[in-house]
Design brief:
Elements lengths: L1 H5 L5 E5 L12 H16 L9 H17 L3 E5 L1
Parallel strand pairs: 1-2
């Protein structure tokens, strides 16, 4: 999956989060939302994206999917 995330097929954009149980703070919901918040901010070119809650995350993810679709691309979330 890491190879896919690093080298996705043409026309595919990837948002990724890999659980790292041996690293404290990298294997829970808070770490997931923080990591995806940064990626979504970059993907959407919007520094105001906030993923503090599940609803905010889902809203931002939907915006990202809409952007990908509008650009004729596919968005893949790798976990």
């Amino acid at each position: 999956m890491a190879q896919f995330a690093l080298r996705p097929p043409q026309g595919v954009d990837v948002l990724a989060f890999f659980i790292t149980a041996r690293a404290a703070g990298r294997s829970d919901r808070t770490a997931f939302l923080a990591a995806l918040q940064g990626q979504l901010r970059e993907y959407l070119c919007d520094a105001d994206v906030d993923c503090a809650s599940q609803g905010q995350f889902l809203d931002a993810l939907e915006r990202a999917a809409d952007r990908a679709t509008a650009e004729g691309r596919q968005l893949v979330l790798v976990l």
